[in-house]
Specification:
The protein is mostly helical. The protein folds into 2 domains: about 70 residues, no CATH class; about 35 residues. The protein contains 5 helices and no strands. Helix 3 runs antiparallel to helix 4.
């Protein structure tokens, strides 16, 4: 077993939705899935939805999927990738603006 495989086995990685599925009844889980379907929801929103539907918090450690090097492991799918793109899209304008500032600072040239 490689170090990576050993770490994954010890960490017992799961998504928040997997943790919810193991902690509540199937009817409550179905209601939870219906509520989060077709929209982007943060972990805090999801925690609130579960608490409202089930009446208790679900134990979930957000830091658990960090590798020994500090990187997060996440279970990707097309929806997850698109959700991340939608959430990060507004930051594109900020980054683009900052990139142009270096040119203005160094050369004094602006295209506007």
């Amino acid at each position: 077993m490689s170090i990576k495989e050993e770490w994954q086995a010890l960490a017992r990685l799961m998504t928040f939705d997997d943790a919810v599925k193991t902690a509540i009844s199937s009817d409550q889980y179905d209601a939870y899935i219906r509520e989060i379907a077709d929209r982007v929801t943060s972990l805090q929103e999801r925690r609130g939805i579960v608490k409202r539907l089930a009446g208790n918090d679900v134990e979930f450690d957000w830091e658990l999927p960090r590798t020994p090097l500090g990187q997060y492991r996440w279970q990707w799918c097309t929806k997850a990738v698109l959700d991340r793109c939608v959430l990060a899209a507004p930051l594109g304008d900020v980054s683009w603006s900052r990139q142009g500032m270096l040119t203005v600072f160094l050369t004094g040239y602006t295209s506007c």
